[in-house]
Amino acid sequence: MSFASEFKAFALKGNVVDLAVGVIIGAAFGKIVDSIVNDLVMPVVGAIFGGLDFKDYFVALKEIPPGVPHALDAVKKAGVPVFAYGSFLTIVLNFLILAFIIFLMVKQFNRMKRAEPAPAPAAPPEQVVLLREIRDALRR
Description:
Elements: H1 3-11, H2 14-48, E1 59-60, H3 72-77, E2 82-83, H4 85-112, H5 126-139
Antiparallel strand pairs: 1-2
Helix pairs in contact: 2-4
Subunit structure: Homopentamer.
Keywords: Cell inner membrane, Cell membrane, Ion channel, Ion transport, Membrane, Transmembrane, Transmembrane helix, Transport
Main location: membrane
């Protein structure tokens, strides 16, 4: 079997194609969740915590030079090291929302699966049948 035909057989297997489709859909879905978090959820959370953009929450690890606005991008451009916990919290929230949505999708998928009927119990071996007959005969 040639290298090309081996690769073709591998690439056209159902599992590989399904995985590729899942990765592509997952990447697109990740962008949707990013938009939900950044454009809908975080502005509300930021408003609750004082009207600032939540991703601009940080702690400067050195003194901010005079004249530099107190915004994450400006402070970083000024070369001040920062502990950007707001960005981290945004990413954690993004992950939690994505994980919750995937959980709901998997739960629905499992619900939609048809329950397979339980297989009929296998007939007991002949020895067991004979032993049961002997037992029943002795009980009489």
